[in-house]
Write a structure and sequence with these properties.
Length: 288
């Protein structure tokens, strides 16, 4: 079965519209500040898509476009102003940043209560300790896909390929909380093919086109493809060879149209959560 992330994301966004209307009836307008440094073409597309998604459901977004030569101190100064601005409920600094800016310092500069990407180490620590109030967007989107498709992770062997702070590590925490047995693999992992062959669930987040092939997948495996890569002809593909593995897998996410739309939907949801936190409104905490 192909998991239609786009359709699920639309359902989530429709639910969020109702929450936004309730907030607006209280005089609260959820507002997201999006900061883009430099001229990275892919980043510009991501920012444009995020802004469009905000407009669709009624979140107000403010865009801050800074030149490539913006210094680290200048960026931190802007973040501090946004932190102290009570009209701003969420802050997103689009990655990657120019090489002269330390991404870790920037993540630490964002107020944890406005950290919609959930990159601040304080929020990371909260997630590790079991607090799922704020969850990084892509891992959260993947968890939602499992919930929507009623795929149980209890006791399942989940192999995550990729150990980034953005996807791999927080995703492992979420899968553990869902009672999966988790193996994290990466570029230095030995016998990766054999490990994957024993997986009930494979989550690929390595940025290598068509890396997951049929010889790595057992019958009935669930494949979640986080990768976004370009083929030589300019078309987009994932980390899994979709045509090779789709008939072996029980569930699979396509690229595009799988995890990507869910990531944006979770950004919107996180913005509503941070807005509620800042206005002392109860947040419904469901199990992740």
């Amino acid at each position: 079965m192909i998991i239609d992330g786009k359709s699920i994301a639309e359902k989530i966004k429709n639910d969020l519209k109702t929450e936004i209307l309730e907030l607006k009836s209280k005089g609260i307008i959820p507002t997201l500040a999006v900061v883009l440094v430099g001229e990275n073409s892919a980043s510009k597309i991501y920012v444009r898509n995020k802004k469009k998604a905000c407009e669709e459901i009624g979140i107000y977004s403010e865009e801050f476009n800074l030149p490539e030569n913006t210094s680290e101190d200048e960026l931190i100064d802007l973040i501090e102003k946004l932190n102290s601005n009570s009209d701003i409920n969420g802050i997103l600094v689009q990655l990657p940043l120019p090489l002269h800016i330390n991404e870790k310092k920037i993540a630490e500069a964002i107020d944890p209560i406005k950290d919609v990407d959930v990159f601040n180490p304080i929020n990371t620590g909260r997630l590790i300790s079991g607090d799922t109030t704020l969850i990084p967007c892509t891992p959260k989107g993947i968890a939602e896909l499992f919930d929507y498709e009623k795929i149980s992770l209890k006791g399942k062997h989940c192999v995550i390929i990729g150990r980034s702070n953005i996807v791999g590590k927080p995703l492992a925490m979420l899968m553990l909380q869902k009672d999966a047995t988790v193996t994290i693999c990466h570029s230095k992992t030995k016998n990766l093919e054999k490990i994957c062959q024993n997986a009930d669930i494979i989550i690929a987040a390595i940025g290598k086109p068509k890396f997951i092939t049929k010889n790595m997948v057992k019958n009935g495996c669930v494949i979640i493809d986080v990768g976004i890569n370009r083929n030589k002809d300019g078309t987009i593909c994932g980390d899994a060879d979709f045509d090779e593995v789709k008939d072996i897998a029980s569930y699979i996410t396509p690229v595009p149209g799988g995890v990507g739309p869910m990531t944006i939907a979770m950004l919107l949801e996180n913005t509503i959560i941070t807005t509620k936190m800042q206005n002392n409104i109860d947040i419904k905490k469901g199990e992740i």
